[in-house]
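Q: Got a minute? One more chain.
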Amino acid sequence: MNPGESEYAGIAAAMAESLRAGAGAGWTTATLQLRHTGGAVSCTAWSDVRDCLRVDYTSIARRLFELPPAVLEVRLDVAGAYRFTARPDVAAVSPGQLVFDPDFRYPGHPLPGLPRPAAAEPTGAPTDPRVRAEVFRLTAEYAEAYTRVKGAAPAWPAGKTEAELAAAEARMGVRLPEDLRALYLVADGDPRETGLLGPYSHDPLDHVVANYLEGAPGSYGWEDGLDDDGVVFETLPFGHVKRLSRNDWWITFGGDRAMNYLAVDVDPAARGHAGQVLEYGRDIYGPLRYVATSVTAMLTEVVTALRAGRFEDPGEQYLIAETDLREAAERSYNEVISKAAELDLPSVVAELPGRELVQEVYLNDAADVDLAVFAPLTALRRLSVNRATAVTASIGGLGALESAEIEAGSVDLAGLAAHPALWDLRLEGVQEPLDLGVLRTLPRLTRLHLAGSAVADLGQVADLPGLRVLGLDAGQVRRLLDLGRPLPHLAALFVSGRTTLPEMAELRTAFAGDQHGPVTEFSAVLP
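A: Always. Here it is, folded:
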């Protein structure tokens, strides 16, 4: 239920008081906007004499967490009169965001419900005896080495039973890899981080189940919002991990206790191995990191290091085997090329180390550039050109390219024709009017941002049948509405710059036909 005036009265007055306190001197009108997403509250405020105001909204944010998500706005005049508006049907303001289809996802961003691999059916069968024997052997050897070094056995919790494993798997709806099952038969977690999995440790089984079932099943969920960049980069080595933002069948089972997490993958790509171990979290940028082919491989690497005397004993309960589980040398998935106008760009691209692994490029401060220069980067999926003079968008040789962001004085779009993979195009600050006709030939074009660019005929946007997400500036939105061209299939509309709640509500009606969205609105006067 949408809260009414009684629920919002105190919050509205507090917003107006905070706005007046932060507005300074010499103003006549001021505006405060709060975006409450359910997990966070963000603030934008300005007056007729200042573009940005610093407003204390800490106490207000705490009160908002007791109410459903919404965007709230107070417009205040110097005499103390204010108008309060709250709408849950507007995703954001300043910049504005309207979401018409909250279930829409970009390519590679699946909703929950991915088909379960046949081998992951939770049958309740006992752990494979050969795998069980190998894991028991490796963990026993580790425990012996640990005891030798530390003078006491590792303090592992008692292992789970086969019946307890089967019950946990039935709750999750997935069978764990055989070696992970065997590990839980040995120890229900490693809370003291004894080093059994190198720099990582496994969680208690009930934590694994709870984490799996919380929210959407599975793990990760990288950049699933419609306002995110959205391109999903591929894990190295290529072909082992499915290129997805999340997967129902990635099961988080541990980590390093520093906000990096391990998951077993029971739904690998064609070259991968069911049960391979992946890492994601605070220190993992871009794609998931491939850790090992299996939990058994991790145990083997740790035990091998101990046999060779390659370990560190830092004291307390810790024993650190010197392994490559975290130190595997990998080329970064992205590349930044700055001051491009001063460079011989073809030579720079040709000489990039591991260029076949580059999936993202930022090109900064180029003069005239033809994007064909990046053809040697066969895995390039996202290209961002910033502050260029002129760009010729010849991307026919960039078969993997999904996203192009171009900020330039002029852009020749002819080279985009019929590109099979491009689904995201952003054209920013283009001064020479753009002809968007060629975009009709792009079979996968899903998202288009044009804010701040000159467009000869904005009506061409309505001729893009696959377009689901559109970004414009306020002037472009008005021009498009004046043309009367419908866009019935939009999943989201973004409006750059400063917007107000009434403006965004009007746009929601214009684009989605909503006549009476849920709204709380009232006026009052500060004492």
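A: Residues 129-150 form the longest helix (22 residues).
Q: Perfect, thanks.
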